[in-house]
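Budget justification note: compute hours in this period were largely spent on complex prediction jobs such as the one shown. Inputs:
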Amino acid sequence: MKKARVIIDKDFKIGKIDRRIYGSFVEHLGRAVYEGIYQPDHPEADEAGFRKDTLALVKELNVPIVRYPGGNFVSGYRWEDGIGPVSQRPRRTELAWRTIEPNTVGVNEFADWAKRANTEVMMAVNLGTRGIDAARDFIEYCNHPGGSYWSDLRIKHGYKEPHNFKVWCLGNEMDGPWQIGHKTADEYGRLANETAKAMKMVDPSIELVACGSSGRGMPTFADWEATVLDHTYDEVDYISLHTYYGNRDNDTPNYLARTLDMDDFIKSVISICDYIKAKKRSKKTIHLSFDEWNVWYHSNESDKKIEPWSIAPPQLEDIYNFEDALLVGGMLITLLKHADRVKMACLAQLVNVIAPIMTNGKGGAWRQTIFYPFKDVSNSGNGNVLRLVVDSPKYDSKEFTDVPYLDTVAVNNEDTGEIVIYAVNKDLEEDMLMECDLRGFDGYTVTSHTVLEHDDLKAVNTEDNQYNVVPHDKGQSLLEDGLLKAKLSKASWNVIKLKKS
Ligand code: AHR
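Corresponding output:
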C-alpha cells in the first residue's frame, strides 16, 4: 500500500469559503429548462409547471446560486421576449444551439423557480448582439423598485417586489469566435466597462463579472484577461474562468491529472489580475468567478446528429461514469484550495445538459455519478480552508509530470467545530494509507468516512439502474494521539469528518 503524509494545522488558513463556489448553471439549451426544471404536463409539475422531482434533487445539492440564462444562448437573447403574457411571447430561432426558443420561461419564471430551489440567480446580459441600452433596461426591470417604465411593467406583470439580482455577468465567452457578436479584447473591454457603469447607475449594489477567456487553451488567453481588466478594473468585481475536461483517448491517469491544469489556470488568472492591480496602483482586488466547470465530452458525437430547429432537443446529455466523479471531486478540491480568490464557481450545468441531475420527460429524475462529490462538498464544505502540507507519492502521465496520487484539502468549520477532509486517491491499482498529523486539534474523533468507489471506472447511473454508483459509509479511519490514519481505496473519493468529542 502506498503512503502519503499530511500536516493539518488549525492556524494555517487559506481563507473563508464563499458558499457561492457551490453554484451551478441553467442555460436555455437542450432539455435544461424545458423538461429539466419546467414541464407543466408532467405528473411531478407543481401549480407553476416546475418539476418537483428536479427541485428535490437541486435542494439536495444545496446550490446557493444559479447562473442564467446562458452561456452561448445569452449572446443572441432578447430578454423582453420572456416577459408578459406567455401566449404573446415570440418563438425565436435560437442561433447558438440552432433550436427554437418558445420563451415560455423567462426572467420572472426563473426567479420563481430559484425561490423554490432556495437559490440566488446569477443573471447575465447580452453583450453579443446587444449593449448598454438593453442591459440598463433589463436591470431596471429586475431591480428597480417602481415608478419607472420598466419597473412598472414588472409590477404590471405581477412582480411587485424587485428581484434584486445581486450578481450580473457582462456577456459570455466574448473571446470565442463561435459566439454571436464575438469581439476583440479591446472591443469587449470598452463595451463591458460602459455597460457596467450604466448598470451600476441603476443599481449601485450589484456585483459584476467580466468575461475572461472561454478556456486556457484559447490563443488570446492571458492577453485577453489583461486587456479586458485594463478597461474594466474599476467597475467590475470578478473575472470569469471556464474549463471542461474529457477522457477522449481513454487514458485515465492523464485524465485525472487535469486538476493540475485547473490549478495552473487559476494561478495564472490570479497573476494577471494582480499585474493589472499593480499597473493601476489600485487597492482593489479582483476575485475569480469560475462560472463554468465540468466534464464535457461524452455527448460530442451524438450532438452532431441532432437536427436543427426543434424545441428542447437532447443536447449535451453526457452520461457520466465513475471516473468522471473522481475528476469532479478533484476539481472541487482545486477550487477550495483557492478559496481566498475564487469566490464564485458554477458546475456547468445543473439539469440534463452536462449535468449532475437527469430527467426523463416521460419518467423520473435521478442522480448522475458526479452528483455525489458535489453534494458532499456543498453540504459540508463550510468555514475556513486550511493550507495543508502534503507529501504524496507521484506519477507521470502523458501530459503531466509529478502528479500527486493524493488530492486533498481540509475545511475547518469553527461554528460547528467540525473538520472535513476531502481526498481523492488517483491510484487505479493500489490503496493508500493517508496519515494526517492534526496540529492544534486536540480531543477530536472521526465521526464518519464515506467513500465513492466502484470496480468499473466506466460504471454509470441510469434511470433503470440509479444506484449503481453511490457512496458508502464504511471507510476506514482511525484517529489516535493526534494522528489520523485513513485507508483510501484505489480510485476513490473520500469524505472524512472529525469532531471534538
Ligand atoms: O455550458 C455549455 C456551453 O459551454 C456554454 O453555453 C458556453 O458558455 C460554453 O462554451
